[in-house]
Automatic annotation (TrEMBL):
One of its GO terms (molecular function) is ATP binding. The lineage of its organism: Bacteria, Pseudomonadati, Pseudomonadota, Betaproteobacteria, Candidatus Kinetoplastidibacterium. It comes from the Bacteria. GO terms for cellular component: cytoplasm. This is Chaperone protein HtpG. The gene is htpG. Its main location: cytoplasm. Molecular chaperone. Has ATPase activity. Residues 1-346 are annotated as: A. Residues 563-635 are annotated as: C. Homodimer. Keywords: ATP-binding, Chaperone, Cytoplasm, Nucleotide-binding, Stress response.
Amino acid sequence: MNKSDKFLEPEKMNFQAEVKQLLNLMIHSLYSNKEIFLRELVSNASDACDKLRFESLDVPELLSKDEDFKITVLYDKVDHTITISDNGIGMSRDDVIDNLGTIAKSGTKDFFKNLSGDKKKDAQLIGQFGVGFYSAFIVADLVKVISLKAGLKEDHAICWESDGLGEFTISRGSRKTHGTDIILYLKEDSYELLNGWKLREILRKYSDHVSIPICMYKEEWSEEKKEQVKTTELEVVNQSNALWTRPKSEITDEQYKDFYKLLFHDFNDPLTWTHNKIEGRNEYTQLFYIPKQASFEMWDRDNTHGIKLYVRRIFIMDGSEQLLPRYLRFVRGIIDSSDLDLNVSREILQESRDIRAIKDASVKKILNLIESISNNNNEDYKTFWTEFGEILKEGIGEDFNNQEKIARLLRFSSTHNGSANQDVSLSEYISRMAEGQEIIYYITADSFNSAINSPHLEVFRKKKIEVLLLSDRIDEWMLSHLKEFEGKRLVSIAKDDFDISKISEGEDIKNLEPSEFQKEVIKNIEKTLSDRVKEVRVSSRLVDSPACVVVEKNDLSPHLIRMLKASGQNPPSSKPILEVNSEHEFLKKIATIDSDKKFEEWANLLLDQAILASGGSLNDPSSFVKRLNNIILDK
Ligand code: ADP
Ligand code: MG
């Protein structure tokens, strides 16, 4: 049986399990916010028109002649139906099965996980996760979708119908031109929606900005019936009010916020925004928002859909890397160009010098906006940094032109306040540098605790030198790209190339010259551990701990090696250097051991604890335990 034969027969199918779960939830928990169904269905209709406009750039025959894009919303008090129609791209039989029978998006699991029980918030989530179509079942107990895909013949029109309980049926539909009708057979308790005034109110509330005209039949007062009756004349009910096209001075903060929440499906107000009309070589309007909270997709580096590109108020596409770099993927907003061609495709965007100029200018605008939060509002900046700091850090390695600007926005934990809050900027660090200090010191570790308790910090404490404590996954990578800030080098204190003895602050550190006997002992330790370390030497950085491990300037740090290994890579392994505190009891004790076997156990234990104290893990923990027990039990 070929496809078109099959096409003619009505066929019953089951919803995917997740869809059933979603439908159930939708019907039971979102009932108090039922009017969102109209927003979702109109938004789909508008998307369908945008899609067809886009595809017809390559294949103009797809469009029917002499017809502008249009969405109509009709209701019928006798049948108790509301019908939302569009002349957009339509759906084929396969499209319908894929789009209205399954949830393809990977975010669905997150969706369920994130339901808060708060119906209002949950309702917003529905839009955010793009499961909007099913909201039809909040108000309807039977939904029919009649659709004809642009480019297909009339006999390919399909009809999908379902009561939302578990199955849907597909059969042949009747529609002469491309587009889709969604017919909702309302539940009895939603009959109040069969009212022209009510529907207009909902449309204005949620869909005013939709750029495609939304039409309803005009209504007039009938003396005879004593009520509003429909005429046969259509009128446009939305203003296609593209907020960004209005002058700033005429827009209230509330309007900016409402627009953001509607367009980007966020239930929080934005943190801040910037709205500018740019004139000159390229004319365009930008409206960028910084959200208050990271959305779930933001951690996905490939998700760069925050920016919507318009050309003269006509929606062209959701933004991609051509409009903003990935490290700004948390930004939401609009770019509306006055001079791009409506025919732009992704490929053209890629090559366009104008787009590149728009992108560069947009990045500057956004970085300035972030900087102004950091200068003017500590609380907001804290929110910003907590939500998006880790993403912004990617910019240090990705956007060399703006590196200095981004570096100014970075915030770290530090030994200055000793708290896990990241609130110390590099400039602040520099302003507190000790007399004679020329370097910005930092340590990277797997966690804040492991950083702040690292033995490497001991001498810095004694010298009262501030050290930045870095424990985000991205930090090590970021700092491999940030060598300097305002002329000061950034140096890891776990590496071996600095000298703080000249810094005059804090207590002096005596660079004790080890005695001949101590030298001998150290040599012996080095010989014993020669398989595991590059070198053993006397440390000038330890105060309380007996030993620590360091790496040479150009070697990978142990922290980075651990990260690379955890991500399945095989980094070149370089042996660390063991530094010992020759004044420590441990070293005095080991010097008195004359049994070779015992000496070996002690030397290995010294190295093991140095690795553990710097947050590392041991290759052979059970030998460590055995050694430790032997020593404790004096065996
Ligand atoms: P989203 O709009 O976020 O993709 P929806 O649940 O609202 O999620 O819609 C699912 C899919 O169904 C859409 O992506 C689209 O492919 C298809 N669809 C829904 N309504 C229409 C329509 N009116 N015309 C064409 N396709 C539609
Ligand atoms: Mg949708």
